Amino acid sequence: MASSRVGNSNHSRSSEPFIIHIVIINTAWDVKAYAFPSHFCIERNRILSRAAQRQNPVNGSLELLPLCNMNCDMCYIRLNKKEVDEQGGLHNADAWIQLGKEMAQAGVLFLLLTGGEPLMFPEFQRLYKELKSMGMILTVNTNGTLLDEEWADFFGKYKPRRINITLYGSDDTAYEKLCHYPGGFSRTVRAIRLLRERGVDVKINGSVTKDNRDDMEAIYRIGRELDAPVHMDTYMLPGLHERNLSFEKQSEDAAAADIYMRQMETEPEAFLWYAQNILAQIEQENITYPDQITCLAGNCSFAISWKGDMRPCVTFDKPAVSVFEKSFEPAWKEISQEAKKLRVSEICVTCSLRPACKTCPASAYLETGSCDGVPEYLCRYTKEFVRLLREAVEQEQEAESNG
Ligand code: SF4
Ligand code: SF4
Ligand code: SF4
After folding, report:
1. Checking DSSP bridges between strand 309-311 and strand 321-322, what pairing results, if any?
2. What local confidence, expressed as pLDDT, does residue 309 receive?
3. Ligand 2 centroid to 310 CA: how many Å?
4. Which DSSP category does 203 fall into?
5. Half-sphere exposure of residue 350: CA atoms within 13 angstroms, side-chain side
């Protein structure tokens, strides 16, 4: 289930609004801050923050397989069976369970199961139950199209923290065009309904491209109807590197979609608070920002590919260390150390727009081929984003003064 690859964070309850995240660069770690956080969210952030200070791995993702029943145009991961076999084949459930035991011993608590389509992983249910019995708090990424009543009963019985389901459009035509999967939309909506009927928390994810920009409003509406929060990503790192979709070249459009996304996913007061906060940070003079990774990646968070390569986050293809060859703890130590060597450009260190910018060593690497390159697309995106934030604040102030 490949969607965009920004960030390592997830949310807890379907009733929890996806509010806004604020990158607090001057604090120790970029644990996302929410305007109206749930208790679970506060507690999770506390655990993540403390783990990052101690450099303990508590949060990770397992990409169980690159196989998928859909075939989306923008997919960066999907392989067919022959390609998987040529690259050494899948690791079986026993191998992942053994890894789960090593992870549990190292203190891993939050685990995301992803793919490809993880429900296609042989013995998924046995693996899931074993990981759960080790005390892991599980989240599952799925495209939802294979999730029938039987699967919904399973997740209703063995509840995950949440199931993330990606919506690629707002009707079956969009799915046929983008995912080459007729009926995909209806199947996905059915899955969300089945899960919600069983009290399973669902978050709808979306990635905005030029092909589905007009579907954003409809996707938010579907989320409201199904009682599932929606989050749309507007900045897709792999797109810059591997897919080169034209929408993603139009950074100004993506920035406008980003503003729209934030307005749809937050209360007006929270959006205004966010906008004013970011603009105030930008106004500060002579600030220097960190040149290292400031998020959780490599500090308390990791991603493991279907081949077993551990990386600081899904966005990096290196540094990478095989957990099946080295075992979990030594792999984590190496990845955590290597991640500290990754630096952004000196220009980004003193850039006044940094509080609004999504740059990090990974995004710079994907756009420029080097962690310390200056990602030009992201600069344009950020400039436009800040311009639109200013505009939104001015409009709000004008509206207030007009009563
Ligand atoms: S659902 Fe689409 S984007 Fe996700 S893994 Fe399958 S083919 Fe790729
Ligand atoms: S390193 Fe960059 S891409 Fe990776 S999780 Fe952190 S902010 Fe996101
Ligand atoms: S990527 Fe551009 S906008 Fe962002 S911090 Fe670096 S120089 Fe500034």
Report:
1. antiparallel
2. 98
3. 14
4. E
5. 4
